[in-house]
């Protein structure tokens, strides 16, 4: 079966997608392409949140680090996502308690809290201009979901000591959002949202300043590990020899390592950005300028940009190619929530490839003595992928505590491995899509 290269299936070499984020990216000096032979302590494949954060934290500890990015830093999901910096793991604490026990579930909660903290601290420490705003509103699109949401709020407050979340009833939800689509939910003011590409660019600049060597337009074709050394080769003849390797490729891993690929699957997601709406309409739609994530299985997630556009994400595909008209693909999801936007112009529409796992928890592993990987953030990666970089830096330096907590989570192989993961997932997601509609 022909498998397109995900690095080029929907995008041009070395070029950011025509997104709102790319159009409003902070100015930064580009990075050179890898040429010839290079040596370093640690080589990192992938210039997104995981790879850049790994490089920054390793360089700050005195390691000689090289990052290899196939296109541009932040080019993948790190620079295309909804920008939500959420609390907790991708799975709720009730599920995690059943999955790993109460003690480890608590450790996973604490790690997730650290993931939000590291985003905020990097923004402050490196003066990253990325439009940080507090607050994520969870909105239930079915009335029967609301009691369970409110019970979960109580659990986080009473059992986990988390006092930055509160319940929202139907009337308050309608006051907060200019929509009749929802029945209640919760508001988490410890969470927040950012311009993700500018955050990635800020981490890259900080890593460069700390001494990391970052190379763009350097497509890795293979690597091998022998006698305690790793050799990485690029498409244009570059070679890096290192003591250790970090894989931070997420949805764009492709065929680079089947040991990861059989547990981590790429899926596509899409976002549109309207024209600027003005202060009055923007406030009518999202009164308090928080981000919103709803309860649909194929989730709607949206927020206002710094210049008061609606950034609305919705819809997923599981083939390799994006829809020909992304704006038309996503707009019906937005209009279901906000029919009053039917005559508003949509200025941008773009897609990206993220990665999911069967259990929707990140896949951390030491796949060889000197090879580490973290990926499969399942739509919860802005904060967790950034923290993953610090956790990987710890692990490379010999401190394995947090890495082991994450790596001890059992991550199932997709049924049929790589060959059948797409058709199996498509069948499952079709069922959930029908359930959402009903």
Automatic annotation (TrEMBL):
One Pfam family linked to the record: DAO
Ranges of residues in domain FAD dependent oxidoreductase: 41-394
Domain of life: Bacteria
UniProt cross-references to InterPro entries, sorted A to Z: FAD-dep_OxRdtase, FAD/NAD-bd_sf
Keywords recorded for this protein, A-Z: Oxidoreductase
Name recorded for this polypeptide: FAD-dependent oxidoreductase
Origin species: Thalassospira povalilytica
């Amino acid at each position: 079966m022909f498998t397109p290269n995900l690095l080029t299936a929907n995008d041009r070499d070395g070029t950011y997608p025509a997104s709102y984020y790319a159009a409003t990216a902070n100015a930064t000096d580009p990075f050179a392409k890898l040429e010839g032979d290079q040596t370093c302590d640690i080589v990192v494949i992938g210039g997104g949140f995981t790879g850049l954060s790994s490089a920054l934290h390793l360089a700050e500890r005195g390691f000689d680090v090289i990052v290899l990015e196939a296109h541009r830093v932040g080019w993948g999901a790190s620079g295309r996502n909804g920008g939500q910096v959420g609390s907790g793991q991708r799975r709720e604490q009730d599920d995690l308690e059943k999955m790993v026990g109460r003690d480890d579930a608590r450790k996973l909660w604490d790690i997730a809290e650290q993931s939000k903290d590291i985003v905020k601290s990097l923004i402050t420490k490196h003066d990253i201009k990325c439009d940080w705003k507090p607050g994520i509103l969870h909105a239930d699109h079915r009335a029967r979901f609301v009691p369970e949401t409110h019970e979960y709020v109580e659990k986080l407050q009473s059992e986990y000591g988390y006092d930055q979340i509160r319940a929202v009833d139907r009337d308050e939800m309608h006051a907060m959002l200019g929509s009749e689509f929802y029945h209640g939910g919760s508001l988490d003011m410890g969470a927040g949202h950012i311009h993700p590409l500018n955050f990635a660019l800020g981490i890259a600049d900080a890593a460069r300043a700390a001494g990391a060597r970052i190379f763009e337009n350097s497509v890795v074709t293979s690597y091998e590990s022998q006698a305690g050394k790793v050799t990485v080769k690029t498409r244009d003849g570059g070679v890096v020899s290192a003591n250790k390797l970090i894989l931070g490729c997420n949805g764009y891993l492709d065929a680079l390592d089947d040991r990861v690929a059989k547990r981590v699957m790429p899926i596509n997601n899409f976002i549109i950005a309207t024209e600027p709406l003005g202060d009055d309409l923007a406030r009518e739609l999202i009164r308090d300028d928080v981000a919103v994530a709803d309860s649909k299985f194929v989730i709607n997630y949206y927020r206002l940009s710094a210049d008061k556009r609606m950034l609305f994400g919705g819809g997923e595909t599981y083939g390799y190619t994006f829809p020909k008209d992304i704006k038309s693909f996503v707009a019906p999801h937005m209009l279901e929530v906000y029919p009053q936007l039917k005559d508003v112009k949509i200025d941008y529409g773009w897609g990206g490839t993220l990665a999911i796992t069967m259990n929707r928890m990140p896949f951390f592993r030491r796949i060889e003595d000197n090879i580490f990987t973290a990926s499969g953030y399942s739509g919860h990666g802005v904060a967790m992928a950034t923290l993953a970089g610090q956790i990987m830096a710890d692990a490379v330096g010999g401190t394995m505590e947090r890495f082991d907590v994450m790596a001890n989570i059992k991550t199932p192989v997709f049924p049929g491995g790589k060959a059948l993961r797409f058709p199996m997932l498509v069948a499952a997601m079709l069922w959930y899509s029908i359930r959402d509609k009903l």
